[in-house]
Amino acid sequence: MPRPRRLTDEDVLDCSVEVFRQRGYAGASLRDLTQATGLSAASLYNRYGDKDGLFISSVNRYADLGISERLARLEQAADPIAAIRQFFDEIIAMSDDDPHHLGCLLVNSLLDGGAMSAQARSLVHSRLFEVQGFLEVQIARAKKSGALPDSMNPVAMAEYLTATVLSLRVLARIDANPPMLRRIAAQALSALGSEK
Fold first, then answer.
1. How far apart are CA 192 and CA 111, in angstroms?
2. Rounded CA gap, 160 and 118, in Å?
3. For 140-193, how does the pLDDT look when each residue is reduced to its tens digit (9 = 90+)?
4. How many structural domains comprise the chain?
5. Could you tell me the pLDDT band of residue 98, with boundaries at 50, 70 and 90?
6. Dihedral in degrees, nearest 10, Cα atoms 108, 109, 113, 117
């Protein structure tokens, strides 16, 4: 008789991410997590310590694949404004390709209000705001190249565009309406000049 396949951490975390996206931190029960992963409660706790540890590992897995890889790719673009526009295009495409309107784990978790640990909340915040750091660097690059005016404040503009990203992800969860999302993004990005 063949031995059962051992689930990798990546398998377990991918399953857990979907549970946390669907139910939120507070709403995800141990039963939900064991059913989704196929592991017993003892196995989950042995690997991750507790629900908070599993959530933290799930957030890092989600952010590594969903944010860090994308930002690293876009940072290579020669045109920083084009990189920002591409980032927004990809956010809208992801929102449109989310048939169950599960949204972004990081945004959902910030809004969840669940009693997660201070460490988990801090992690969610810092991983989400990697986007703001990316935007700030790209705006500063564009300003240095002369593509944006000297008067533009990279920090303030990055904050504004990050707020727009958060709004897009929340609105997409309520009603994924790509034309509306594109209009909102276009209005925000108009601050960076007309599209070439």
1. 29
2. 26
3. 999 999 999 999 999 999 999 999 999 999 999 888 788 999 999 999 999 998
4. 1
5. confident
6. 180
CA dist 175 and 5 (Å) reads 39
**For residue 150, is it within any domain?**
yes
Which range marks the domain in which residue 182 is found?
A: 9-192
Question: What pLDDT was estimated at residue 7?
Answer: 76
Does some domain include residue 3?
no
| Orientation angle between helical segments 30-37 and 9-27, nearest 10 degrees | 150
Q: What CATH number is given to the structural domain containing 29?
A: 1.10.357.10
For 138, counting Cβ atoms within 10 Å of its Cβ (0-12 exposed, 13-18 middle, 19+ buried), the class is: buried
What's the pLDDT score for residue 131? 96
Chain-centre distance of CA 55, in angstroms?
14
Given a contact cutoff of 8 angstroms between Cβ atoms, the answer to whether 171 and 147 are in contact is no
In a domain, residue 4? The reply is: no
- Can you spell out the DSSP letters for 61-108? HHHIIIIIHHHHHHTT-S-HHHHHHHHHHHHHHHHHT-TT----HHHH
Whether 2 maps to a domain, the answer reads no
Mean pLDDT of 38-54: 92
Is pTM beyond 0.70 here?
yes
